[in-house]
TrEMBL record:
Pfam families: MoaE. InterPro entries: MoaE_sf (IPR036563), Mopterin_biosynth_MoaE (IPR003448). PANTHER family: MOLYBDOPTERIN SYNTHASE RELATED. The lineage of its organism: Bacteria, Bacillati, Actinomycetota, Actinomycetes, Micrococcales. It comes from Occultella glacieicola. This is Molybdenum cofactor biosynthesis protein MoaE.
């Protein structure tokens, strides 16, 4: 199928938009991943109160290329993925990925592949703010 949606955005992410982008009359399964901001991290000593995501200027192009690469490995799957930038509170959506296919196994496999590639290769950094007023940087989203 194809990549239907990729975006790097400071605006809140909409799960329904991603699900709709990968769905059509032949879709029998939509697998999704919703990454949310949590109040703890293995990279931080203490409670995380918020995150600040920063993207390299090439991040939109890189995200589209990563999604295209994953789509090449999963030709019968439609993909959508977006990552948020800016200040995010605990509970906010940081990343949404959806994969639509006629069959669930293909959708699950493609969605996981997409998320793992984006997490490993997207030029995105996060600054974790802690309850004690300190912060830590994590090199990749």
């Amino acid at each position: 199928m194809s990549v239907r949606l990729t975006a790097i955005s400071p605006e809140p992410l909409d799960v329904a938009t991603h699900m709709g982008a990968v769905s059509d009359s032949g879709t029998g399964a939509v697998a999704s991943f919703i990454g949310t901001v949590r109040d703890h991290s293995p990279d931080a000593n203490g409670t995380v109160t918020r995150l600040e995501y920063s993207a390299h200027p090439d991040a939109p192009r890189v995200l589209a290329e990563l999604a295209d690469r994953v789509a090449g490995r999963h030709p019968d799957v439609a993909l959508a993925v977006s990552h948020r930038t800016g200040d995010l509170a605990v509970g906010d959506l940081a990343i949404v990925a959806c994969a639509g296919s006629a069959h669930r196994a293909a959708a699950f496999d493609a969605c996981r592949d997409l998320v793992e590639v984006v997490k490993a290769e997207l030029p995105m950094w996060k600054k974790q703010f802690l309850a004690d007023g300190s912060h830590t940087w994590v090199g990749s989203a």
